Amino acid sequence: MSKIQIVQTMSDEIEEDSCWTASFNLTWNKFKNEYLSNDFTCKSNDEDIKNLINFNQENFIFNDKIAFNEVQKASPEFKEKIENFINENFDGEINDENVLKKVDFENNDDLILCSIHEFLLDFDIAYENMNIKKFGNYKRNIEFFGFIQNYTKYNEQIIPLFYYDKNNFAVSLYSTSNQTIVLFRTDLEDTFENVFKHLQAKIDEASVGEYSLSISSFACPKIKVEINKNYKNLSGKKFIRNSDSQEIKVSNAISSFKLNLNKDGIKSKEDETISLNELDCYGQTLQTNFRDFIFNDNFYMFIFDEDSIGFDNPIGAVKVKNIQKFLD
Predict the structure, then answer these.
(1) What pairs with residue 113 in β-bridges?
(2) With a cut of 70, which residues of the chain have pLDDT below it?
(3) Is 235 exposed, middle or buried (0-12, 13-18, 19+ CB in 10 A)?
(4) What's the CA gap between 220 and 301, in Å, rounded?
(5) DSSP, res 149
(6) Which domains does the chain show, CATH number per domain?
(7) pLDDT at position 140
(8) pTM of the predicted protein model
(9) Where are the alpha helices (DSSP H) in the chain?
(10) Three-state SS for 8?
(11) What is the pLDDT of residue 12?
């Protein structure tokens, strides 16, 4: 799997293919509140650190089983705690073995920030395999899932949000873990924060009218993300707590992000493959309010927790442009 960038906040500049998890921001919030009393000084010209310091969203909620957010002094006991979580929740699999090996867990006063987050995105009813062979200009080894002319079967787990044209549309998917996934087809190139604001504006704009929208066909590529990152810009960084001028040093900041989006559902059935090209509905509308939501080019994914009100506070984001990076 090719390298995918993982950013610290939604405000960071992102590359061609990137992801973000609020789990690391929750870890950062613990650090600045519990160790810096949320009143500190840090001299840095690093834009990502400036974004992290200025990122004020506090109320992230996670399923405790799949999120690990801890700040502790370096110690063998802390390393064991991290490894136990990995073994219990990831079957011991954090693929980049060097992430923990490169961290010094010997007893000292330096702090280690550790964030591990897995998104469980199974569906109640499994989608069909789709016979689509192209994503953008890439034509090999891509697997899609979705459906054609079967919206009533899936209408409780996929909702169309808006459709402006074949390159500008969005749907929301509902998983069995009560996390909502919003897929946004767009060619916008910007930070997750600005793309998300654009998405919100489109959703609000579409909700104003009385236009009823339905799905004639839906297709999305299966994607897999496994990233383990030791943020070098925070390693060795010193912070001054203003209340007593105490210097507090971060030795390492570790983030692990895991996501697997495919057709799987609890109510599985035998695999079958449907070809869009064999049906007349592809690229057309069955009725004036039916549209094809085919995510076979650049798109963004935003993930929301079950306790989110509307689409206001995402807990994860992925930008998919070079599909090769997301294949097994």
Answers:
(1) 71, 253
(2) 1-2, 56-66, 90-98, 208-211, 265-288, 306-311, 328
(3) middle
(4) 11
(5) S
(6) 5-120+224-260 (no CATH), 123-222+265-326 (2.30.39)
(7) 79
(8) 0.88
(9) 22-30, 47-54, 76-89, 98-101, 151-154, 192-208
(10) coil
(11) 92
